[in-house]
Amino acid sequence: MPCYESVFIARQDISAAQAEGLTETFSKIIADNGGNVASSESWGLRTLAFKMNKNRKGHYVLMNIDAPAPALHEMERQMRINEDVLRYMTIRVDAIEEGPSAMVRNKDRDDRPRRGDRGDRGDRPDRPRRDHDDAPAPVVADSSEGEE
Asked: Is 77 helix (H, G, I), strand (E, B) or coil?
């Protein structure tokens, strides 16, 4: 059977439990039509790039699906009907990716340095440090010299 990755965005005003309920509903549709959902990931409530139907945020969910095309069409039909689903996108992939998705791996990057961790005062090591004492003194013209 062909493999698919499907991501849908649910409205911001539903709870996380209701978003999981939508995932279970769509998984049941796939299972009833002869397919299976290999894995699903909730990416949580995230800010949208632009407002969709007066929503600024949405619950993102990824589903890895191994199902025939009619099962996928039925799931997408139910997504279009459901008013809690803002957008969805399904793509066909060669194989289902094992392990966490890139979005989940991106959340776990706590080992990278933050802005304040680059040393004292945030100096860059590849640039020479310039102290204020090295700067030439400003030239001030004295207006009293030219008058007599």
From this structure: helix
Distance between CA atoms of residues 72 and 90, nearest Å:
9
Question: CB neighbours (10 Å) of residue 112?
Answer: 6
- What angle (nearest 5°) sits at the alpha carbon of residue 21, between those of residues 16 and 25? 150
By DSSP bridging, strand 3-11 and strand 85-93 are antiparallel
CA gap 129, 116 in Å, rounded: 17
pLDDT tens-digit readout, 47-72: 999 998 898 999 999 999 999 999 99
Q: Which of 87, 104, 98 shows the shortest CA–CA distance to 38?
A: 98
Q: Which of 2, 3, 6 is nearest to 61 (CA)?
A: 6
**Two structure tokens written together for 94:** 């060669």
Q: What distance in Å separates the CA atoms of residue 126 and residue 134, rounded to the nearest whole number?
A: 19
